[in-house]
Every structure is written in structure tokens, then in C-alpha cells.
Fold this sequence. Notes:
By secondary structure, this protein is of the alpha/beta class.
Amino acid sequence: MHITQLNRECLLHLFSFLDKNSRKNLAKTCHKLLEVFQDPLLWSLLNFHSPVELKKDNFLLGPALKHLSICWYSERVKVCNIEDWMKNSFQKDFCKRHENTVSDFLLDVCNRCPNLLSLTLSGCGHVTDDCILQLLKNCPNLKSLKLENCVQITDHTLEAVTLHGASLRTLHVDFCRNVTQAGLQRVREKCPSVMLRAERSANMIPDSKPGKRLMLEKASRKLVQL
């Protein structure tokens, strides 16, 4: 029995066990398998491990997408999370090459995936508050928002949660050094049903100009001495 003799439900089930590249390769073999590859039901869950993967033509975005994860654990991610004033020319050039990759992708998600239920971003150093705001507005069913080491996220994202996160039940902003205790407290007060986690976030030194950072470090040392 040839694989193309299976009914559509069986083929969808088989495709579900394959990664994105394997699905794409199999879809190239015949028109019937290409139709299965293009079935929105196959794309309710997407995981990416590098911004480069977002540019590959091996997946579909659509209303069926419910769960999305973009987690970049490469050592190179540390470069994007360094304050701009500390980066050398090589590091700035490296960041410039993909600074809009994740944000542009998420804006595409805003326009095409209104039924998104969960979003996890880790190490996405170029994602901004405006991007998260648009997601919250365009994906009203979002229940879980997990942000880790997204250094450009600030209290503006926390405020957006209080205004547009009616369905949200889980919010993680771990290692997001530019959120404050005041912003976290505002979420706790206005959204008591949201499970909030912010490991180390508000306790890290926020981004600032060299002079201000030096003042913060001196103040911290004085407190330790006291």
C-alpha cells in the first residue's frame, strides 16, 4: 500500500510526527502530500529555535495556530542582550542583521493568527513593547505569555497586559531587566487572576547610560557596606 492511498485524516496524523523540514520535504514528492502540508489543521503548534528559522518556507501561519514558541538559546543571544552603549562595532553589525526578524514575524502573527492561546519568547532581545501590545490587541484569546530575557520589554508591556490581557492567565517576565517592581505590583493589583512570575527581573540593573549605571553601581556598593 502506497502512502498516498491513505485517507486525509491518516496523512495528517502521520505529518504531525514530523518536524517542519521533514514535512516540507515530504510535501515536495506529490500534489496530494502538498495539499496535506498546506492544511491549516496541521499548524496549530509552532516551535522555533533560531530567528533564522522564521524565514524558512517550511510552515504555514493561519487561524489554526494556537501555540507559538520562539526560543533562542545560542551563546550568540548574549550579544543582543548587551546594552547598545557596551557593544563593539562587530556586535552591533551582528545584531543589525536580524534586529527586525522576530518583530516582523510576530506582526505577521498578529494579522493572521487571531486564535493564538500561548506565546513563549526567550532570548529575543529585539522584541519591543509595541510588538507585544499589538499581539495582545489582535489575539484576544491569549492565555499564556511567557517572556524570558527579552531585554527591551518594560513596564509598558505590563501596562498593556492590564488594558488588553482580559483572557491572560499566565504572565512570565523572567530576566527582563527593564521592568520594575512598581510595574509588577500594578499587574498584581489590576489582574489578580493572572499567575505572575518575574524571576530576577526587577532586581537586575536596568539599561542606562554609562554615567547613570556607574552611579547605580556605586550606590549598590554603599548599601552592601552598610
